[in-house]
Sequence to fold (872 residues):
Amino acid sequence: MSESWFTASGRGGIGSGGDGGRESSVAATFRGLTARDAAARLAEYGPNSVERGARVSLWARVTAQLRDPLVLVLLGAAVLTALTGDLTDTAVIVLVVTVNTVVGVVQEVRADKAVTALSDLSAPTVRVLRDGGETEVPSAEVVPGDAVLLEEGDIVPADADLLDASALLVDESTVTGESVPVDKTAPDDRLHAGTVVARGRGVARVTATGAASTLGRIAALMTEQPGPTPLQRRLSQLGRVLAIVVIALCVVVFLLGLARGRPVEEMAVTAISLAVAAVPESLPAVVTLGLALGARRMAARRAIVRNLPAVETLGSVTVLATDKTGTLTEGRMVAQRLWTPSGTADVSGTGYAPVGEILVDGRRADARDTPVRALLTAAALCNDAALVPPEEGDPDASWTALGDPTEAALLTAAAKMGLDRDALRAEYPRVAEAPFDSVRKRMTTVHRDPAGGFRAALKGAPEVVLAPEFVDGPPELLAAARDAADRLAARGHRVLAVGARGLDAVPEHAEDIENGMALLGLIGIGDPPKPSARETVRACRTAGITPVMITGDHPATARAIASRLGLADADAGVLTGAELADAAPARVVATRVFARTTPEQKTEIIRAWRTAGAVTAMNGDGVNDGPALRQADIGVAMGRRGTEVARQAADLVLADDEIATVVAAVEEGRRVYTNIRRFLLYGLAGGAAEIAVMLLGPALGLALPLVAAQILWINLLTHGLTGVALGAEPTEPGSMRQPPRPPGQSILGDGLWQRVLALGAVVTAVTLAVGTWAHHDGRPWQSMLFITLLFAQLGVVMGLRDRPLTRDNPSLPVAVVGSVALGLLGVYVPVLRDLLDTESLGAADLAATLLGAAVGFAAARARRWLRAAAAR
Fold:
C-alpha cells in the first residue's frame, strides 16, 4: 500500500480529510453511546473518580497513638508524679506525650492526601462521542463504552482500547515507568488512565473507570498502612520491658522498706519516686528533638522531611530500592553517541538545554566535520519538536520539550553543533511529510532547497532504514551500520538511523523517494544517569546498604543503566514483572534489577524484602511508584519532577531531585539513632544506679539513702536538662563506613544493656562508697550521697561524647554546668534545703563528691580508651 504525503497546507488526521472534516468523519465511523445509555452506565458503574477510604475520626487516631506501650508507661509516670506533688515533672511528661501524639496523627492524615492527589491526574473535562456527535463532559461522567477523542496534550481519562490513531504517541512514564513515550496503534493497543498524549490523535473506547481503572487500582494499593517504623517498634518493645521491670523493682523496694519498719506512706512515696526515676520520660523528647534537628539539617541540604520518624528510619535502611527514570537518570532523552560512515562522535551535556559540545576523536566538532553536521541537520529538519527555554529569574528551572522527547533530544544535539532549528526551517521550508508511526517505523520530510530543487530527510528504526531497499550503499557499509546499531542498543540507547537525498520534484508517494536514501549515520539516544548516581551507589555499598533498581522500563535498558552505575554486572540477571509471580522469594531478594514492573509488582517486591527482614527505602517520582513508596519503611520522592501523588505518599521529598541527598539523610538517621541509644545508656544507667542505691544502701547501714524529693530532683536535672541536650550530639566519625544495624536488633542490643548494667554498677559503687565513708565519719552523708550520685551521672554524660571538648553541640556542656549549679543550690539555698531535706556541705565534703564525676567520666570513656589501646 502506497503512503501518500501529508502536505504542509493540508495535513491529514484520523479518518479521511483534514482538520476541518475531522468531527464528521470520526462521528460517521464511531457514533459512541447515546445520552440515555451513558446515564444508565453512570448509575451502574459510578463516577470516574478515585475512591477514598472510610473517614477515620480524629479521636480514633488519637487513641491509637496513646495505646503505644511506651506512651502508656509515660502516662503512668505522669499519674505517679502528680500523686507525689511533683507538678513540674507531670507537666513535662504530659507535654512530651502530647507532642508525640500530634506527630503521629499528622503522619496518618497525610496518607489520605496521597490518595486525594490521584484525582488531580484526571482532566476536568473530556471530549466524547454521544448520540453520533462530539460533546464535552466532565471527566467524572465518563463511563465504560464511551468513545473519547484524544489530541496532543490531553490526559487519558480512563483505561481504554484504541479504536483509531494517527501518529499517536503517549507518555506513560508516570504510570508504567517507561522512559520513552510509546507509539500506539489501533486496534491493538490499550491506554491507561492518567497518561498523557505527547503527539498525534486517537479515538479510544473506555473499558474501565473509577476504582477499576489503573489510577483506581493504584489508589487501592496506597490505602494499605505500612505499619510502624523500626524505631517505633523498638521503642514499643522497650516500653513493655520497662513497665515490667520498673513495677517489679519498685514493689521490691516498697516491701523491703516495710520489712525494716519504715512507714507505709514514706515507702509508697519513695517507690513512686523510684518508678519515675527509672522511666526515661525524656526519651520521647530526646527522640523528637533529634528528629527535628535532623529534619532541619536535611532541609538545609534540600531534603524536606514530611514525617519525623523517617529521619531515623533512613539510618536503619538495609535496602534502597529506586526507580530508574528521573531518579537514577536525568528523566530526559539525550542524544549521547553519533555514528557516521567516517567515524563516531560523543555528545556532552544533559537535559534539553543546548549546552555542551560534540566531540570527534576528543576534539570539539566544527564546520570541518561535514558528516556530523549533515547527520544533525537532517535530524533537525525531519523533526516536529520544539525546545522551550526556562523563564528568566528562575535559577532552578530547566529547558523543556514540546512534542516527542526523542525528537527534542535530536534538536538539542543539533544546537550543540551550532544548528538553529528556526533558522534551518526558514532556510529549508517543509513542503511535505510522511509522519512516523509504529507500523512504518520511520518519518520522512521534504524541504525546498535554497540551492534549487528539494531535499528529503528520513529517520527511523535501524532495522527498517538499514534495509537495502531504503539505503543505497555497499553491503559492507550496511553491515557496519547494523553492528554499530547493535552496540548502541546493547548500551541501553534508543537508536535512530538517518538518511537524506536530493530531489528535482516532490513525488506523489513517499516510497518513491524513501528508497535510495544516502545513509548519513546513527544517533544513540538515552536517558543518561545522573552525575551523582554512581557515587551514590558506591556510598550505599560502603555503608552496607543494598541498592536495587525497580523500573517499568525495558530489561535491556535497565541492565545497561545498572551496569554503568555499578549497581549490577553487565551480565547480571534481570527479573521482569511477568516472571515475578513464579519467582521464589529467595530469587526476588537476590535480584538487583527489576524491569517491566507494574505498580502492584513494585509493591510485591518491597513486601518481599520486608518479609525477609530488610528495612526498605523506596525512591521514586511517578504515580506508579506511589504504592511502593507507601509500602516501604520509608518513601523518598523527587520534588521537582515528581508527581503530587508520589510527594504525598512519601516521607521524604528531595527538593533538588538528587538521589545523593538520600545518602546524607542516611547519615543523619544514623546520628539520631546513635544519640537515642546514647541517651538510653545514660538514662537507664542512672535510673538503675538510683534503684540499686536504694536497695543496697540499707545493707550498708544507710537506712534511707535518698528521700523522694531528692530522687525527683536528680531525675529532673539529669533526664530533663542534660538528657535532652544529648540528643543534639554530632555524627560519629566513620558512621557511613559501618553496616546498618540488624533490623531485628533490640534498641538495647549490640551490648548496650550490658553497658547499662556496667555503668549503673560503677555509679552505684562510687555513690555508696562516698555515702558510707561520710556516714562512718559523721559527715552529712545523705546530702553527700545525693550530690555524688548527681555528679557521677553528669560525669557519665560528658564521657559518652565522641569528643568531650567538641564545640559542635554547646548545649550539652551548658546543660551540665546548669545541672551542677542547680544541684549545689539544693544544698546551699535554705528554701531548697528544706524542700529536698538536705544539709550544707563543707569544702572537704564537696571535694569528696567530685570523685563521683571523675569516676563516672572514666567509666563512660573506658570502652573508647580500651579500643584505642587495642588499635595501637
